[in-house]
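Figure-free illustration: sequence to structure, shown twice.
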Amino acid sequence: MAQTRPGPGFRTHTTEPAEVAPLTGALDAQDANPGVRRLRAWAHAALAVKGGERALDVGAGTGSQTRELAAAVGPEGLALGVEPNPGLRAVAEERSADTRARFTHGDALALPVPDASVDVVWCERVLQHLAEPDRAVAEMARVLRPGGRVALLDTDWATTVLHPGDPETTWALASGALTGAANPYSGRRLVGQVTAAGLVVDDRGSEALFQDHRSVAWPIIRMLGDSAVHRGLLTEDRRDAAYATLAEAAEQGGLHMSVTMFGVVAHHPG
């Protein structure tokens, strides 16, 4: 699955190396995930960024997609990554030193660019962390020029699947993925959000992000298990029995653990 469960540990003001390093590692793992890479490839193809355009990456993280946009817009264009976390922004700037990607502090609810000033907006796995995601999408619509395009990619944590195990127990475990995100159903809401912001949907896509079927992602599983016990959905004995079932399945190469990420590409009709 290569994606950590979102939660309160995602702090926008982190600068301590001991706190920035895990965030960087998680983002790097997501960059390497085949499902993430396929969904990104689809979104970039649908956006069809051209040389000379102005592109904005909202929630740039370590800057991987800002650099992708910078390569597409070329020397006559502009690719600006907006990232509120100063630690991640420093990583992005260091990794992008030899590119045309640029970065600035900013908030998804108050983007630091004028109205109708950009051709392309990219926003990946940001809305799930926001208590007011609709406001963020409206803000992206504000900065798009007429005919400009936006790509929103986000996880829907209610699609978390664990197998094997009895359905009641695996549901109790998987439901823990909903407790750590401000907006856990983000993926399924994207189409409605861009439409409400006055944008026109051009295409939709999705990819399941899989955990290795030969090993258990114990840090994630234990977070889910502890959450289920804390919420009274499982006893410790049932939780531990579920752990044993998943471990046995992994030893036999038959574990399934996944979550689905969705995407929408739209344009400003003005």
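We now fold a second protein in the same way, so the two outputs can be compared directly.
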Amino acid sequence: MTTAKHLNDKVILQNGVAMPWLGLGVFKVEDGSIVIQSVKDAIKNGYRSIDTAAIYDNETGVGQAVRESMAEHGIERKDLFITSKVWNADLGYESTLAAFETSLNKLGLDYLDLYLIHWPVEGKYKDAWRALETLYKQGRVKAIGVSNFHVHHLQDLMKDAEVMPMVDQVEYHPMLAQNELRAFTREHNIQLEAWSPLMQGQLLDHPVLGEIAAKHGKSVAQVILRWDLQNGVVTIPKSIKESRIIENAHVFDFELSSDDMAAIDALNEDRRVGPDPDNFDF
């Protein structure tokens, strides 16, 4: 369980890098003015972690927003945590190195804080991982990890890896509690990170969550994000509305009881809104 009390609190990854517990995700946020404004709103309101990916096609806007925010608010680059991911078509040693350069150029940054393999494409992710290890050893990226990896993918990768994955970003919400994966990542000091923590809005009318939210004077979204944090899971909710971005960050001033946590845990149905990594048509 995290002891995070503030938006700026961080978890220390296995290599000593500090990663914010809460960040802004920009999946499916249109490049240009929309993503620029949402990222600037997040940073203005205290967020320091922004998560994008090559396939989101908005790295250019994210980078512009980051640079403008640094200038406008006097924020240093070292105080921000920027994540991107290499897409499936670019997995391979040389192609991953090239994809990283493309992402870095679009973002207009000198380095990334975290670079992830987006999906575990069989026969390709090990060569991509060697590229991430190279970038890590060169200091081009502060931490490396994976996304959408099941336990068996992690085990396979770790057999040959020189540098162990530091993060696994996966679909995670009360309907998909990822219990086996959570236990494995905790055992191997891999930080679990949640994408789609609100199940793309499908949980916001859930009666059990609504009852817990009412008891705490919080929204259902805030209760779910708090559940993530108390389970030791980094979370990156997406929103393009400043009011929602602010609301999502107000999860450090209350605590769910053990009964609350158990009630939310009991909602698990191993149900996904995204693809199963074992059956994803890459």
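Summary for the second example: The CA atoms of residues 4 and 181 lie 22 Å apart.
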